[in-house]
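Bench notes, afternoon.
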Amino acid sequence: MNNFIDKNLEIISEKLSIIMPVYNSEKTVLRAIESFIDLKAIHDNTTLYIVDDCSTDKTLELIKNFKCTLGCRGKNFSEAINILENQQNSGPGVSRNIALSRISSGYIGFLDSDDVLDPIGYFNSFATGLKKSADLIVLNGKVFRGGAGYSEKYDFTRIIDSNGDFTRLCARGELDGACIFYIYSFNLLAKYNIKFETGYYEDIAFTYAHLLLSRRPYLSTLSAYTKFDRQGSIVNTISINHIDGLLNALVRLKSEMLRFGFGSYNEFEEDLNYNLRGITANLVMKIISPLADANRCYGFLTHLQNGLRSRGFFCNPCVVPKTNKDKITLIFLELMRSQVADESEVLYRINKLRNSAKDMGFII
């Protein structure tokens, strides 16, 4: 448990900026802001940038009213909260870039409006990273999944075992690309002009670029962040934008790895294809949810197939399947090879994918 502040770290004075994009988050946003307040109570030189992305509920009103009530709580809490308002709905990537343009020094963390910082773990991780002159601080954290309770973020053992060499883990897509689980050095970000992409899954390339370019990463074992795995969030739903977002993230990852000189090792293409097969299988399993309408489901499968083709993926899909995700991907590619004759063929293909996934132990 992170229940104490390391007294040896309290002298840290480096600026820490937290960026939180918000959109229709009236049910959770104040909880997120309160976790920032708890962090600022520990580390005074901490600032929050809230970027409202044209919310249509009471999110912005709640934030402004809450900020007005902070004057009596001391610590300059109210002055530490900067509220920015987008003129049009632009997505979290654009919103984060807008806030980044206001920052010129120190370190930067990110907070989603339905999550919370674990303030003591966050501060101790940040301060220890600074003492080690880290240019990237990798955080541990918890994921809350309702009735299933809390679990450690899935990739943390891989991170610890990597000894700071993240090249192949990034190419294979084996690390959590969510920007919330890292604290970034402004100097590293500015040196390489790293920005967020537009669209969904916009933070994967941003985070992976930092993992690749960092020369002094600090890996904290403390739990510093709690993510609430909410139904309806970007990672738990499926749409055309989700499909395009994940495929585009892989295109950008390849481009960035080549641009920064990380694509010259022998297994590079093999690792990217491993990543692609995983992405494809994950998308297929989201699409074939038992509750999905068959025609809508098949429309998404067709869009995925066309998206793979248009980006030049799987031009030569022959591969000996090594994992169950490989098998799901190959079954999908084989089933979609020809046009469907009628609705019964649509149902056959969907049920074939569902039954195959269940036989392999996947929960869909």
